[in-house]
Design goal:
The chain is built from three helices and 16 strands. By secondary structure, the chain is α/β, with parallel strands linked by helices. It has one domain: Ribonuclease Inhibitor (Leucine-rich repeat, LRR (right-handed beta-alpha superhelix), Alpha-Beta Horseshoe). The strands form four sheets. Strands 1, 2, 3, 5, 6, 8 and 10 form a seven-stranded mixed beta sheet that branches.
Length: 274
């Protein structure tokens, strides 16, 4: 079954619906949730969804004024924090963390296609990438430094030209939809410090061919890799505690070996919408 790439954005909405309908538990079929995903993929169009609102506008991030603090997403109980005023370099808008000992990348300003995020700015480590920081940008490759531990929700959403991203071993948190709709991304390695791959993390990455998951992961949430229609190889360790049945929905080109690997941890895994 070939699904038009124009409907990838609608998929992300469908997958959120599926999560709300109870897909977060790995327990057999959920007809209502599967129908919700299928209905959206078969005909739902949301013209507003293609242009994710820019949560990082040009205003300074003053204490108490920012309601999109890293960690404020449906997958984290990270408490709200206040960040200092935003500052710009040539390529990034950034701010100092609430304790004055770290840097948060708030927004990629463009100007280069192959991005190497600095590990240090103003003598402070860069350890967080803010929600939507790179969303909808034209980057072609991104190297994330080993100072970064936190990649917020939708941080790289809809980077349709990005064919490669390096996620270092230092990263321990990926937000939902962090790499959703990166339609040129070819392969990805999930480092061992990440325990959970949240809902929609790589949903709609239509060119993704290979996923390597290092030891340490325990949970793969609904549609984490949904509609990765080119995905063939999934390499993962034994002992993953929970794989949602719909984690790999609409990944219809998976190799038999990869399917068996997934089925060993989740016997009810769904790979097709048929």
């Amino acid at each position: 079954m070939k699904i038009k790439k124009a409907k990838i954005t609608a998929l992300a909405l469908a997958l959120m619906m599926a999560s709300a309908l109870g897909l977060t538990a790995c327990s057999g079929d959920n007809d209502d949730a599967q129908d919700a995903v299928r209905d959206v993929l078969s005909g739902y169009d949301d013209p507003s969804a293609a242009n994710t609102p820019d949560r990082n506008d040009d205003t300074n991030t003053q204490d108490g004024e920012n309601d999109n603090t890293p960690g404020e997403n449906n997958n984290s109980n990270t408490p709200s924090v206040d960040y200092g005023p935003a500052t710009s370099t040539e390529y990034f808008k950034y701010s100092v963390g609430p304790y004055g000992n770290n840097i948060v990348i708030e927004k990629f300003l463009g100007g280069i296609d192959d991005v190497v995020i600095p590990a240090v700015i103003d003598d402070l480590p860069v350890d967080k990438i803010y929600r939507n920081a790179f969303a909808n940008s034209s980057v072609t490759s991104v190297i994330i430094p080993d100072s970064v531990t936190f990649i917020d929700a939708q941080a790289f959403e809809n980077c349709q030209s990005m064919h490669s991203v390096t996620i270092p071993d230092s990263v321990t948190f990926l937000g939902p939809g962090a790499f959703t709709m990166c339609t040129s991304l070819l392969n990805v390695t999930i480092p061992g410090g990440i325990n959970i791959i949240p809902a929609n993390t790589f949903a709609g990455c239509a060119s993704l061919e290979s996923v390597t998951i290092m030891s340490g992961l325990t949970v793969i949430e609904p549609t984490a890799f949904g509609l990765c229609e080119s995905l063939v190889n999934v390499m993962m360790p034994n002992g993953i505690r929970e794989i949602n049945p719909y984690a790999f929905v609409a990944c219809e080109n998976l190799s038999n070996e990869s399917k068996q690997t997934i089925l060993a941890s989740q016997p009810n895994a769904v790979f097709s919408l048929e």
